[in-house]
Write a structure and sequence with these properties.
- The chain has one domain: 3-Layer(aba) Sandwich (Rossmann fold), CATH 3.40.50.300.
- Helices cover 47% and strands 12% of the residues.
- It has 9 helices and 6 strands, in the order αβαβααβααβααβαβ.
- Strands 2-3-1-4-5-6 form a 6-stranded parallel beta sheet, with helices on one face.
- The radius of gyration is 18 Å and the shape is globular.
- InterPro entries: DCK/DGK, Deoxyribonucleoside_kinase, DNK_dom, P-loop_NTPase.
- Keywords: Kinase, Transferase.
- GO terms for molecular function: kinase activity.
């Protein structure tokens, strides 16, 4: 029997948790679910990507070429505004869990935009660069494209059903390449294909205790029981 009340209470722990945690990974991997649960457990503020606010996203998934630049720029400005607001409210006096890393924004642009659009995007990206806070810990969730597609279909968002497996393979490859050389923050890599942080409290509690120990370097998490 699970007890969600136990793990969702703010934690009193002798180990000081990271003040700014970012959860990353491709669509369908569970990053927002994990970010929300970590925020609840640690008593942190949530900083979540607002995909539902992007008016170009449905058109993008229906026909990527027709709306790729619009969808990309909307997310760029949205994330920049969220982090700018954090700076103004003094991030260092608060604690946050985010479901995105701002610096990875060009990752999608390189996949979805043509050469002229990518050049324009890069110019805009340079103009909106802000003093982006570096996470104290980044959690990178991985899963095969087939698993991602199954989870996307299960959550039942109508326009996401147009996402094909080739696109998910490209996204997975781009994420893998990006984090292969990532050194800006301590990095925790998790193969999330067989892990259910939303409903399996044992797996989640193990992760929670594990990440509180991380201070530097690259780490891999594998639950010892299911």
């Amino acid at each position: 029997m699970t007890n969600h009340n136990l793990v969702n209470e703010p934690i009193i722990n002798p180990h000081k948790p990271p003040r700014f945690i970012a959860v990353e990974g491709p669509i369908g991997v569970g990053k927002t679910t994990l970010a929300r649960r970590l925020a609840d457990s640690l008593g942190f503020h949530q900083l979540l990507e607002k995909a539902d606010d992007n008016p170009f996203l449905a058109r993008f998934y229906a026909n990527q070429r027709h709306a790729a630049l619009s969808a990309q720029l909307f997310f760029l400005f949205q994330r920049a505004q969220q982090l700018s607001d954090l700076r103004q409210s003094d991030l260092f006096e608060q604690t946050h869990v985010a479901d995105f890393v701002f610096q990875k924004d060009p990752l999608f642009a390189q996949i979805t935009l043509d050469a002229n659009e990518l050049e324009l995007y890069r110019k805009v990206y340079q103009q909106v660069q802000i003093d982006v806070p570096t996470p104290d810990l980044v959690i990178y969730l991985q899963a095969p494209a087939k698993t991602l597609r199954e989870r996307i279909h299960q959550r039942g968002v109508n326009f996401e059903r147009n996402i094909d497996i080739d696109y998910l393979e490209k996204i997975n490859g781009a994420y893998s390449e990006y984090f292969h050389s990532y050194q800006d923050s301590p990095l925790l890599i998790i193969n999330a294909a067989e892990i259910d942080f939303a409903h399996n409290d044992q797996q989640y509690e193990q992760l929670l205790q594990y990440l509180l120990e991380i201070r530097s370097g690259r780490h891999y998490f594998n639950p010892t029981f299911f």
